[in-house]
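Try this one yourself first.
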């Protein structure tokens, strides 16, 4: 994906009501740094309002994050996986160094190791 070819700015959802037909349309629209509305990115259409709103918000968030960091969601996932791998290797190296110096029992009490264990577990399990 060439992220340079997507609409710049912050992407937000905009609701458009059609009272004469009882309808609601959600659009994803770009806004510039001054908050001025730009181009429409897409319409989100579905019969279930809850899904429509969630889908529109996800599209808007993905576009905004891509514009802020320059990476697509897929590229961010790949970076996350690479960073997780490096963190696991660093954690293993650190634990080995501490274990050889202080013994296995004392090494496991270091806060950085305990914190890294819980963070790594959350990342691996896609938890918040």
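Now uncover the answer:
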């Amino acid at each position: 994906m060439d992220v340079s070819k997507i609409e710049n700015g912050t992407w937000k959802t905009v609701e458009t009501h059609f009272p004469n037909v009882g309808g609601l349309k959600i659009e994803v629209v770009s806004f510039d740094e001054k908050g001025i509305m730009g181009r429409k990115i897409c319409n989100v259409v579905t019969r279930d309002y809850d899904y429509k709103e969630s889908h529109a918000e996800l599209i808007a968030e993905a576009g905004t994050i891509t514009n802020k960091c320059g990476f697509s969601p897929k590229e961010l996932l790949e970076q996350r996986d690479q960073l997780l791998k490096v963190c696991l290797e660093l954690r293993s190296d650190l634990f080995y160094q501490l274990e050889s110096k202080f013994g296995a029992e004392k090494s496991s009490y270091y806060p950085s190791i305990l914190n890294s264990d819980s963070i790594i577990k959350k990342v691996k399990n896609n938890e918040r």
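Discussion: Helices lie at 49-69, 73-102, 104-107, 111-124. The two ends are 27 Å apart (CA to CA).
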